[in-house]
Amino acid sequence: MDATHLIQPQSALIIGAGPVGALLALSLHQRGWQVTLIEQHDFAQGLPKSYDSRQLALTAGSVDWLKQTQLLPELLAELTPILSIHSSSQDNFGTTSMTHTEMKVPALGYTLSQQTLGQHLFAALAKTNIPLVGGINLQTLSQTTTQVSLSGVDHENKQHHWQANYLFAADGAHSWIRQKLGIDSQTRHYPHNLLTAIATLAQAHHNLAIERFTVQGPAALLPMQDKQQSKVVYCYPTEDDEQVKATPTAVMIDTLNHQLGRQLGNITQLEAVQHYQLVEIRAHSIQQGHCLLMGNAAHTQHPVAGQGLNLGIRDITAVYDWAQDADQASWFALAEQRQQDHKHTMNFTHGLVTLFSHPSKLVRTAASAGMGLLAFARPLKHRITRIAMGY
């Protein structure tokens, strides 16, 4: 027998079957790893609740990686390209625009529904031999120098035990794994909440995305597959939460039209309205022994610039590259590299929110002027755009 056939494949436990956990499971399976995907949600009840009606923004870099790995080829037809972006600051003169032709790329980014992503992920998982273990409440976690052990109970109170070489925690912002490992985190509560909705427009969106910075936080319109529908992202003061939730739809439409400007014409209808609190969570470390925090278990950030899932996909990309050889010496370097990316991206998104919603009009005007000057500083504008595109 050839010696290579004696080598046991690496094994992994992945906790959380949301987008990051499910995509990581497919990635490691493609590398030949033995993977077990464990989720608190009972799969008999359908997709986990994280796959709701929200619309996601994917960077061009994230989509390029999906194309290169061919993990979800059928998903590509579901993506709506963003061909141009117009950014502006309310009550100030600064504006800037960017097009895909200017950047010489097929698209600046893409949108798709979270539910559509979930359907494709679980269709792909069904074609593999990856065990999907749902309805689990975790109980114990322990490690040796070479292995991670985990136990939990299902909804019938039946005990389950698992062992693997590595554990990847993608179990969300309130990660059980992070808490069990004793990893502290820093939490920042933003002074505004988030409204998301699907807007019907008076005219076609022509794959244009609108980003508008206001005193109370950013607002945006992102194109959807229906040419007259866009995803709405709108921030409002936390203290106005009850009032905003009670606002009649017609009044909210007028408010959004005023806040977002007229680049796409008026919003005429609003549906699938949802409200969220905005919290930033940074884990002080993302690795302990053979356990690594992924996605929201390691970082949640303000949705401005749409970097949340894309940062999680970059986590997956780094693990995917490392997993080819699974070199133990580079395991700790992997965590350091990922944490630096988290830090830079989260500082960037927090800085945007802070500058453009600063209580001082002088600061807001200076930030707006800086945005306007980007139109004349083309090399800098291209560099910033490429970073936002995930390159």
Describe this protein with a few key phrases.
D-Amino Acid Oxidase, Chain A, domain 2; 391 residues; eight-stranded mixed sheet; alpha+beta; disordered N terminus; single chain; globular; six-stranded mixed sheet; FAD/NAD(P)-binding domain; 32% helix
Q: What would you note in describing this structure?
A:
The protein has 391 residues and is an alpha+beta fold. It folds into 2 domains: 183 residues, FAD/NAD(P)-binding domain, CATH 3.50.50; 158 residues, D-Amino Acid Oxidase, subunit A, domain 2 (D-Amino Acid Oxidase, Chain A, domain 2, 2-Layer Sandwich). Helices cover 32% and strands 31% of the residues. The radius of gyration is 22 Å and the shape is globular.
